[in-house]
Amino acid sequence: MVTSRFTRPKGSDGESSPNLYVANCGPAVGLSFDKIESVFSTFGNMRGVYPADESGTRVIVSYLEESSAQAALKALSGHPCKDLGGRVLHIRYSILRPASQVQVNDSVPVYLVASDLKIPGIYLVHDFITSKEEEKLLAAVDNRPWKRLAKRRVQHYGYEFLYETRNVDTKQYLGELPSFVLPILEKISSFPNFVAAGYDTLDQLTVNEYPHGAGLSPHIDTHSAFEGLIFSLSLAGPCIMEFRRYSQGTWLPPLTTSNDVTEEDNDHCSNFTRRIIFLPPRSMLLLSGEARYAWHHYIPHHKVDMVGDNIIRRNSRRVSFTFRKVRAGPCCCDYPQYCDSQR
Hints:
Belongs to the alkB family. One of its GO terms (molecular function) is RNA binding. This is Alkylated DNA repair protein alkB homolog 8. The chain is of the alpha+beta class. The protein has 2 domains: 2-99, RRM (RNA recognition motif) domain (Alpha-Beta Plaits, 2-Layer Sandwich), CATH 3.30.70; 110-338, Jelly Rolls (Sandwich). It has helices at 33-40, 66-76, 131-142, 182-188, 192-196, 289-294; strands at residues 2-4, 6-7, 19-23, 46-51, 58-63, 80-81, 87-88, 90-96, 110-111, 122-125, 147-148, 153-157, 159-162, 167-173, 204-211, 216-219, 230-235, 239-246, 272-279, 284-287, 296-299, 304-307, 310-313, 317-324. The strands form 6 sheets. Strands 10-20-17-24-15-12-11 form a 7-stranded antiparallel sheet. Strand 6 (80-81) and strand 7 (87-88) form a beta hairpin. The protein is elongated. The relative contact order is 0.17.
């Protein structure tokens, strides 16, 4: 869900602001942001035009000066605007939401494309599956038993991931991956990285269900547990994922946390490099090479995420399917400072 950084001021509609909430106006009614800006800019210098919500029929027009907003409201509100298709605009003042109501990602930009992260080995494929395929996958896991952790629910297939040791017991084979993920495995097998790695198949799947606001502590999937490709499919809701490279090698939460720690617990080490990407529903994330072996990945415990000029409100649930291949021997990667096999 997309909402604006702006909201209606408390008190009367007469409370002035350099920002205007404009209804009956937007892409869904055939008016581009550029067209809207060209009309409203005649009243003064603008910061820009932003979506007010996800409807596409309401926008925020933001000026540098209050007087410009006042002039635009007086001239355009409640009157047909011939330059905007003759539509009658409904306008009121708007203000920025207080910082306490908006989770802002500090000063780190949120990228939409993996290549912009400048981290070797990260790939993100949007719309990897269709909405109907998403519905079938969610229905399939909801018909199976969940295991409850502190802040989320999980299912394991192939091999169970043991959170106490952050590893798998290769002697405890749970059987082949379920038939409902076979179409996903077939799509994954066409990845050039998959072919180059010489994989025949993936044999471990963890399904995570995150309730509204729940996240995941910074971690690197244990080197000795899994091979070099990790595929994660996002379903049902969006989130941001942060990548961190710690200068001293690693950051580890307490072993008993099941990767469920609080926001305050995971920033005691400030000496790290950060990158953030937005993961929309139905997207497939691949971690390989440096991204898999040397960068911690982390989902902040947010109820809303700031992405560009929009606030993305997380859904009531987000479900991820993480596919991996269990490692048969020790890891011999090129990142010994992060590798449990080489320490």
